[in-house]
Amino acid sequence: MVLVSDLTQAHFSVPAGVADAVANLLTERLGGIEQRDADTLAPADKGQVEFVAWVPSSDVSEHVRAVEHLLSSLNQLGDDAAPFSWHTEEADPDSWVEAYKKHFKTNRLGRFVIKPSWEDAELEPGELSIEIDPGMAFGTGLHASTRLALSCLARVARLCPPPEAVLDLGCGTGILAIAAAKLWSATRVVAVDIDEAAVASCRENVERNDLGGRIEVQQRAAAKASGRFGLVLANLSEEVLLKLRPTLPKRLDEFGRLVLSGLLAEQAPGVCRAYTRALALEPEYSEEDSGWRALLLRTHL
Among 3.40.1160.10, 3.40.50.2300, 3.30.70.120, 1.10.10.350, what is the CATH number of 4-102? Predict the structure, then answer.
């Protein structure tokens, strides 16, 4: 796991017109961010919005590449995504805990209540609690792509028989895997991520939710996942989802369903066509949130 002493403050400055999309991306990747613009106490340059977050020092370049990739996609879609700049600053590690708690609060997403360990939440009838410690670099469920995946998951729970097994690819903190295990008490859940810190974070959260005997967490590439599942959850980027097109349908059982999220709304039609080509899968449902879109596909009947 990443030590607080290994963190640095990363600053990302982007045009105001693309700030919402970048905020969504960074919130999912980093858990909590501070936003600065012309009206905040610590102002940003005119026309720019600055995001400040605590980041493991070794991961800064990875997050910069993710922002650059998003801005490139937005620029191709006609948005003015320049100028972009970033820098890091040394900061007192002791202040990280308070900054972390300030930004991560209890959130209700449909029937799911996603909460940090330091907050109490009184559940309404039918609600399911998911207690998460996002760690240094993983999401809290606030990003639109995660909300969409949870919405699709809840839809499957309402309308379909319980799957015998669920696969969560790119599990991060494990929110989707934990949600599936909470929805279906007899379902086997496998959570997969290639990142060592993500796997460690996921395992901690699985234990935090008393699901150690129900969820198997594996460190491996998504393409190396094995087995067949009634439901596969893939909250990944467009690039990764297209690369996985030859393999993901093979992970579904005879009546399986596949949730694809992590897509900008404009990217979703192309990904849907790729997965439904040659009648490998057929579309069942689609939902949009804040410029992001998720797809629910099923094996062709």
Answer: 3.30.70.120
